[in-house]
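Lesson 9: reading folded outputs for more than one chain in a single document. The general rule is that every protein is listed as its sequence immediately followed by its structure tokens, and records are never interleaved. Here is the first one.
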Amino acid sequence: MRFVQYRTGATGARQLLGVLSDDGTKVSDISDRYGGDLITLIRAEPSLDEVKAAASKVTPVAIGDVELVAPVTNPQKILCVGLNYSGHCEEQNKPIPKEPMFFSKYATTIVGPYDDVIAHRISDQIDWEVELAVIIGKKAKSVSKANAMDHVFGYTVAQDISARDWQKQRNGGQFLIGKSMDTFCPLGPSVVHKSLVADPHGLSIKCSVNGVEKQNGSTGELIFRIDDIIQRVTESITLLPGDVILTGTPAGVGMHRKPAEFLKPGDVIDSEIEKIGKIKNKVVADA
């Protein structure tokens, strides 16, 4: 089951929650039953059969007649893992880490699967990072690796857009500003329930800019797998329904190319993960 958040001309600014048809061409509105956002549904913990029954009672609409927004909005936490692909470590001549490097992004970074990314005027080193995002399904505290995947709801495609100058040289070398500028976390197009992804550690993951492939890897390269990440985080931090974990990016980011490459207004970023989906975001100038 694939969940989307969207708007239509009839609803104006009101956000709806829907379920995609198996072929992805139609969406069924389940907002009357579960509210207009996915986190509300996740907290309610309905069975997939219950959700399917709710979707069967409405007339689906064509996906082309709706505007998809981010499939998750306003999570309490967005946690990220740096240096979590072996190739990404190699391209910057860094050793494989013995422990995961965690950092965070603010929820105000989130935009939809086809929304614009702002090239903020305070940075001239804006970079791409395609990532598999994990959506937490139930409260997790002090969770074992053996039980960690029970706390996963599903997956979506993410772009961890990064201002490298603010990540590396400015702000004391802290990641927060460089990772948390507005629009720096496109998500989508849907949240794919975990039941549709037998092994999240064997998916192809790609990114292209202006049609030129920049990243091409596999989630099999993850140094710290999803169960390990959840176990380590919940030793000290409680994860809640709807929290988002960005699991890292493969080799091919702009900063470590020779010469370095950075995004500029007019560029188009395509981010794709096998079985999860594809998002497309245009870079626009700061207003």
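And here is the second record, again sequence then tokens.
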Amino acid sequence: MPHSHHSHSGQFCPGHARDSLDAIVQHAISLHMTVFALTEHMPRHDIDRYPDEGPEHDLTHQLANEEAYFKEALRMREKYRGQIEIPIGFESDWIRPESADLIRQSIDRYGFDFFMGSVHHVHTVPIDYNQEMYHEARRIAGGTDERLFGDYFDAQLGMLKSVRPPVVGHFDLIRLKSDDPNQNLQGLKGVWERVLRNLDFIAKYGGILEINSSAVRKGMDDPYPKREVCQAALEKGIRFCLSDDSHGIDHIAHSYDRVLQFVEQVGIQSLTSLKHGEPSDNVDKNGTTDERFPTLRFGQVDVGTLRQNKFSQSTKYA
């Protein structure tokens, strides 16, 4: 009964992902997954196009892509009803305060079940796209990883306060291109204070942290968030969900065996799953409700049970 709450397809995220939405969902079913959330990227302002995105990727095109994505996601949910739970959401891009307007517009336009709140930019510069851009963001921040980390968590707090995402995506993504992606954040006093501050805010409004296996897939020791962050979040009563951040079939459930071992070692005993429900269903029994997402429902699964199920026995990932 494994889950993933963060995914992308080549159909709606060309250049960054592969494979059609249908093929991806079929593969998730073949791996005995029970929940597979769809979370394509939200539209961005024209000024925020990536280097590989030409004029044809303007805001008008992105809005049309979002509409097509939502329609296809609804079709997937209906086509595979009874085989797998498919919550439909999107991943937000917090680039500047004005990003909040685009996020709210996406929420208002469609009946999304939730969204994944992420930060991929600091000082409007992408920090996970390539090393060159990371270095530029670091230069603007003052020339050190520690300064950039601090600015990243400040930007994240702005996002959290402005739009309160139901799920917080790859909490410490900033470490991906840093000089030491595995360093203990507790050793960076100003950074660690910001980490705890942001976790306090997430706990206050009832947000969920995703445990994102893509960090392990990319060669890091821990998933997002790191061990010390997970332990601090656990002490604050924050819930966790499991994600692969897949960008194609090959990434689905990648490194889950290692990540589930990590989860047990950290002391997390249960994981939250997201589901789609009718607005008249019972509300969340485990945390605060969100009027923006009346169809969002929650479940819980024991980590020990998850590691012993059919998926874990039949599928191992290094």
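What the second record shows: Confidence is low (pLDDT under 50) at residues 313-318.
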